[in-house]
Amino acid sequence: MTRPLIIIGAGGHASVLVDVLRLQQQELLAIVSLDRMPKRLVLDEITQYSNDDDILEHDKSEVLLVNGIGSMPEGKARYEIFKKFCSLGYKFETIVAPSAIVSPFAKLGSGVQIMAGAIVQAGAVIGDNTIINTGAIIDHDCVIGANNHIAPGVTLSGQVKTGNHVHIGTGACVINLVSIGESAVVGVGAIISQDLPAGETAYGYRGKSQNEWSN
Question: Taking the model in full, what pTM does it have?
Fold first, then answer.
């Protein structure tokens, strides 16, 4: 039996997730918003919790959580909320939008979110708390680390590997067999044809790192 869901966050990313969950006729118990709830039709009639700790009123066996906090480069709020509630024994729902295509031979971690129109091919592995955003393509045998954000329209060719906490910006392309190190950032529209070291930012046609451009 599916447990009721509590969504953490009430911004744009959360509203898109709620839209998906409504389409799937999931039971939405509450949404956590520290501020006044934004006026979004999709959020109407959902009970508001005004503090993260309100979740603790529910036993961890009774509910599932949805991480509705969006992800930007160097932003840590999404990761911190995931880490906090996992350490308390709560589980995060893995969400696949109805229009997404996910191979039965792909593996999705805890709290992964596959958004509308995304494609995840056979042999791909998606790490915990990662967003595969609208229309992104994860081709065969890619290994995506935990806490990644693969932004809308990204294409990862076969056997791409990313470390944890990687952000790949909207419309970027990563060529097959390329590895992207932990906490690296790929800029909007970049084409990456060579490995990107941990902590580096890459942009442009050839995806050179900032250090290479400055030399």
Answer: 0.93
